[in-house]
Design goal:
Blueprint lengths: L3 E4 L1 H4 L13 E5 L6 E3 L31 E2 L2 E19 L9 E8 L10 E8 L5 E19 L3 E2 L3 E8 L18 E5 L2 E6 L6 H10 L3 E2 L7 H11 L8 E8 L8 E3 L24 E4 L22 E5 L6 E6 L19 E3 L8 E5 L4 E4 L3 E3 L12 E4 L11 E5 L9 E6 L3 E4 L3 E3 L12 E4 L4
This protein binds calcium ion.
Calcium ion (CA) binds next to strand 10.
């Protein structure tokens, strides 16, 4: 499964985009992969989750693509779990026959999960999209949002797609997360610029789990907060059929001692508000060394217990994913491969970039055509994370207009222009002296600098 995609957007572009015209290859990561998905209705095995399971096959076969019932303006949605700058969405359509092709599709990116029409429009496609193809849509401008919607607008029909990929330059690609010499059964996922390893095919004690994670340069998953928890849960949910076991160690233990109630993450920080499962922790008959936590966002997390006798007297925490017996585990903070460079930087219409060194710590600068002002930061640097700092600046055309004539003198335009950065030079006729500034420049605000000078009489005027 590819995790890093190099898109030459100018080749793939299907929708005219007035602002974003990338002329370079931009390394993008698919951030829709296995995130929570939803749709207006579901029929014939066409679950919303089929739309971002990483399989692009155009043959539905009752399980591979999404499908809604025939209805007015059907939609499909993915929750990216945090807002991302989104620019490219790629849709694999369903193959020939047996289902109506997509027609009049709209793609929206925004932060409203309930009122999809409130989200800004990324792209639309009037007419019918070919069957069994992968079509790339480029947002007219970069949109920052947590939810990406596809909708057949004003159409009475059934929405069926086989894979939707949402690309950003703002997230690690999984291949940056791979520990050296990792085996093929290691599943990687990245979120919020943190790499996670899902050791779904393994089992063992808390200590086994922790040792394994540390060998891979990380530790058992810890410090869970914010959207990282629903992210990991969604990852596990999607892998349910392949999980060796149904209980998952996470990196928290109770401090030793009978009276203490303090739980700590493996990095030493206190677990501030553990959300224990029902009747947990209980250390039933002194036979348990684990306690289940309930992740509040899912109805599928219920209590259960394992049968491992405590060895150390410490308790560890597991996500009780489903009822089960043995233990698998998650790891985070694994060694992220240090990137050697940031790849080609993105740029907006009209801008040019000087500097061709894209390695870490290199600085590039953006230029605008003559007569335009630069909007944003001129310079960007390649950070150690492998991302360019800040945002690509834009260019705005500025014209300060012609200047009034000067009494007893002349005003000359250098380069014969009145646009941004242009200079006007004043001079006086014979016997007159110039008072004030000799030169004025067209500035960012569309106005000439300073006040106009005057030509004052010396004598014999
Ligand atoms: Ca699929």
């Amino acid at each position: 499964m590819e995790s890093l995609v190099v898109l030459n957007v100018s080749q793939l572009n299907t929708i005219p985009s007035p602002l974003f015209v990338p002329s370079v290859n931009v390394a993008c990561t698919n951030i829709a992969l296995m995130k929570p998905a939803n749709q207006s209705t579901t029929v014939r095995g066409g679950a919303a989750a089929n739309g971002n399971d990483g399989e692009r096959t155009p043959v539905h076969d009752g399980k591979s693509c999404t499908e809604t019932m025939k209805e007015a303006s059907p939609w499909w949605m993915v929750d990216l779990l945090k807002p991302y700058p989104v620019r490219v969405v790629r849709v694999a359509t369903r193959g020939c026959c047996g289902h109506q092709p997509l027609k009049d599709i709209e793609i929206r990116v925004g932060n409203s999960s309930s009122d999809l029409q409130r989200n800004p429009l990324c792209a639309w496609f009037p007419g019918t999209i070919e069957e069994g193809v992968t079509k790339t849509f480029t947002c007219a401008r970069t949109l920052v949002g947590q939810h990406v919607f596809l909708q057949l607008v004003g159409v009475e029909g059934s929405l069926s797609v086989c894979e939707v990929e949402v690309f950003t330059t703002d997230e690690f690609s999984n291949d940056r997360c791979a520990p050296p010499g990792s085996s093929p059964d290691v599943e990687l996922a990245s979120f919020d610029r943190t790499c996670y390893e899902l050791s779904i095919a393994r089992g063992g004690s808390f200590l086994d789990a922790r040792t394994h994670c540390q060998k891979h340069g990380g530790d058992l998953v810890h410090g869970l907060e914010g959207a990282a928890t629903p992210f990991l849960l969604a990852q596990l949910e999607r892998r349910k059929p392949t999980l060796k076991t149904q209980l998952v160690w996470i990196g928290a233990t109770k401090e030793p001692g009978f009276t203490t109630r303090t739980w700590r993450w493996v990095n030493g920080e206190v677990v501030s508000r553990p959300s224990w499962g029902k009747e947990q922790p209980n250390n039933y008959n002194g036979e348990q060394n684990c306690v289940e936590v309930v992740l509040r966002i899912s109805h599928s997390l219920l209590m259960s217990f394992d049968r491992i006798k405590p060895k150390s007297g410490e308790w560890a925490v597991m996500i009780d994913f489903l009822q089960g017996a043995a233990v698998t585990f998650l790891s985070n903070g694994i060694n992220v491969k240090s990137p050697s460079d940031c790849g080609s930087p993105d740029k907006l219409l009209n801008t040019t970039i000087s500097g061709s060194n894209y390695s870490v710590e290199a600085v590039i600068s953006y230029q605008c055509p003559l007569g335009h002002r630069l909007v944003g930061e001129r310079n960007r640097s390649c950070t150690v994370n492998g991302f360019w700092s800040g945002q690509a600046p834009g260019c705005q055309y500025v014209d300060c207009g012609s200047l009034p004539k000067l009494d007893h003198g002349v005003v000359m335009l250098e380069d014969n222009r009145t646009t941004h950065g242009a200079w006007a030079r004043y001079s006086c006729h014979e016997n007159y002296t110039l008072t004030g500034r000799e030169k004025r420049q067209c500035g960012d605000d569309g106005k000439w600098s300073d006040e106009p000078p005057q030509c004052l009489c010396e004598s014999h005027c």
